[in-house]
Amino acid sequence: MTDGISPALRPFPLQDSSSEPFFRALEKRMLMIQRCTGCGSTQIGESSCRHCESASLDWIESSGLATLYSFTIVHIAYHPSFSAGVPYNAAIVELAEGPRLFSNIIGCANEDLRIGMELTVEFVSNGPGYLPDFRPLEQAPGAEQGAWQQHGHFTARRASA
Amino acid sequence: MSATLSAAISGLGMAGLVRNQPLEAGDLALQAIDLALADSGLQRSDMDGLLLAQSPVASDKSVNLKLQQRARLRNLSLLQVVEGEGTSALQMLHTAAFAVTCGMARHVVCVFADAPLRGGRTGAQAFGTAKSLSGVAGLRYSSGIFGAPALFAMSARRHMALYGTRPEHFGTVAVAARAWASMNPRAVFRDPLTLEDYFAGRPIAEPFRLHDCAIPVDGGIAVIVSAVDAFTGLKQPPVHILGVGQGHPATVQHRDAEDSAHAGVGRARTTAFAMARISLAEVDMAHLYDAFTYMSLVALEEYGFCARGEAGPFVAGGNTSPGGSLPVNTGGGHLSGYYLQGMTPLSEAIIQVRGQAGARQCKRHDVALVTNVGGNFDYHACAILGSRETRP
Known about the structure:
The structure holds two protein chains of two kinds.
Chain A: H1 20-27, E1 32-36, E2 42-43, E3 57-61, E4 65-74, H2 80-83, E5 88-95, E6 100-103, E7 118-126, E8 129-136, H3 146-149, H4 152-160
Antiparallel strand pairs in A: 1-2, 1-3, 4-5, 4-7, 5-6, 7-8
Chain B: E1 7-18, H1 25-40, E2 49-54, H2 67-70, E3 78-81, H3 88-102, E4 107-114, H4 123-127, H5 139-142, H6 148-163, H7 167-181, H8 195-200, E5 203-206, E6 208-209, E7 218-227, E8 239-247, H9 257-276, E9 285-287, H10 293-302, H11 311-316, H12 333-337, H13 343-354, E10 367-374, E11 379-386
Parallel strand pairs in B: 2-3, 2-4, 9-10
Antiparallel strand pairs in B: 1-7, 1-8, 4-7, 5-6, 8-11, 10-11
């Protein structure tokens, strides 16, 4: 490990009964969403359909494709897992299927982030599990980019993957 | 058909409002209650209602039901802890107004206090905590979104993308707040602030910079709500509670914060203005929950003071500044005054409607709009205050 790389893990959500399949799938590097068998609406981690209130929901695998809904560049490290990466981006991504997720964008310099840019999921190791980060679509996973390596915590997580 | 409230504010007490002091929130609350009693001319024994609220991330939990004993408020007809995050202050005001209108109580003291900086803590330490959040929404912490700035910054970024709002628009909200604060002896920051100073401020969560964000303080504010027919012999002119409203959209995780803002405001506004039987054009000034500059822009648009997407130019045109057509946050608000959550806009509205605002007193101060926002636009509450009772 080099200086500036934080070994701390990012906080991981507690699971509840409605989100347990989502987090179990994450362990297998799969991004799962709920689809209502009645009206076809999609969502994640709900006990019934937000649209028609049906309790009949299927879990299906997301394409992993998304667009950048919004983002911010955070300049304060509130948690040790982010201290080496300051300033870091935080984002809301909108999956092609509709639901939105809090995430981080990797493989893109912060100044190049644009609302609406096309993204694809990348599962990033975080201790025993994975978190769904996203990277610009035109950039193939695994392609090394300077901007990515500038962010210590991302490098650290990749190194431990 | 809506009934008419018969409730008015008779007392205001403000304690602390400083950065770093030794007292717990509960002690500040007690001081605020005593100050409100002295302000009103009411006796402790006159109080028959007590409503309490604390910050959802309070560092000490000393604002609780036990405060009744500590405040020596005996034989109460109404006692309640109210939790509505940033809307707690107005939610207390609403409940108190209903209680005195219906005869459940005559004089209800509503108190909020917080001591986030006690012991030398910074605002980021106090408010940037990770609550344990279960389910997919908990990914906000995995993504490094701890305090409120990053959440609202993403909403602000949407506003920029959708409507062409620019960073200097956020900046002019901060500059206007400071211009008002310069005339408020209670404001924490009163030195002049220019747009250049704003852009020199360090970035917090882009697009937000230092001056886009509220100034945390330690303090307590108490407001006494009394029945309108119970003002005989009191020291202050009544500040009538003309209309109140709430809107809680319950949009679930990964919501469009814009949608939430719209839904919450719309419901609250409709209720409150119908109850008050006034129109938006009759509002003399607005006291908005401005924990971030962007929140003022949203409120101006959603209440209809300007069209959606036009609040930036509206503020940049000086309309909300001293001398403008719609004075906003005349005490400096959360940005330059003091961040005591929902009590900040409420306290300044009371001072202005009474005509006690000194150098910053608005010429027209008969009708004030007050707003409170909780969560990430999850909760909304408003009140319309006036110097005169609602027309029959």
